[in-house]
């Protein structure tokens, strides 16, 4: 890992340490916590889309698996929250491993449609299974406890998510600098060339899809325990598109772009609320202008203009 990347991680940690001094109420804490949750999900999704070059338009389905695993196992079967979270992550990883091989035989828009269909299937299952999930109305989730300590209140959740985000950024940076990360970048550039030099393309595609699904599932569980309630909306199509947009706006194949994209697109709807009915128009215009003038994403474009690496 280069010194510049260590510097970027240090900046994130410093901001997280100082930020509570500027958060004035519970709403501000809630917004920052949601930014951090989205950032961790987008980090995993960017490893799949940005670094490996594989699209996923149904990724919110894995978030739903984690959220409902935590809700169902803790409420109906009295599992410990951490055990339920681990079970959800294992279920999401297993499902991703099972569907990855047939899905990733497809290319282009066929691949996009396949992942989109997977997301729709998961969302419909969560909405229709009323006995355990509460159907469209959703269901409550018990508080998160760790070693007998109940995580309650925005300040406690802020520090938990600050730690999780810092570790996730550090892990992502190390991953992309590892032989595994170099293999991902190679198959993104050319699958044929990657095979020629000995990269097992299928195995790496499956592995990164599973890893990104586990990222999403864990954050789904975290979201469920933080909010205290879960509905099928957590797994819907629009949530998946929102996550992909965060990847694109921040910058594909950019770890810090993932964080910036998640922060901006989580905060933007709140900032546009003053437009009173024109929020969607303003939001679309901003995204369109971003794609025109920042085609590679915000962080890579600014880094290139400054003559620096990410």
UniProtKB/TrEMBL annotation:
Top-level division of the source organism's lineage: Bacteria
GO molecular function: branched-chain amino acid transmembrane transporter activity
Membrane topology designation: Multi-pass membrane protein
KW Membrane (keyword) present: yes
Keyword set, alphabetical order: Cell membrane, Membrane, Transmembrane, Transmembrane helix
Keyword Transmembrane carried by entry: yes
Subcellular location: Cell membrane
Primary subcellular site in the record, as a coarse category: membrane
Transmembrane segments: 6-23, 35-57, 77-98, 110-126, 156-176, 206-227, 247-268, 280-299
A GO-annotated cellular component: plasma membrane
UniProt protein name: Branched-chain amino acid ABC transporter permease protein
Species annotation: Oryzomicrobium terrae
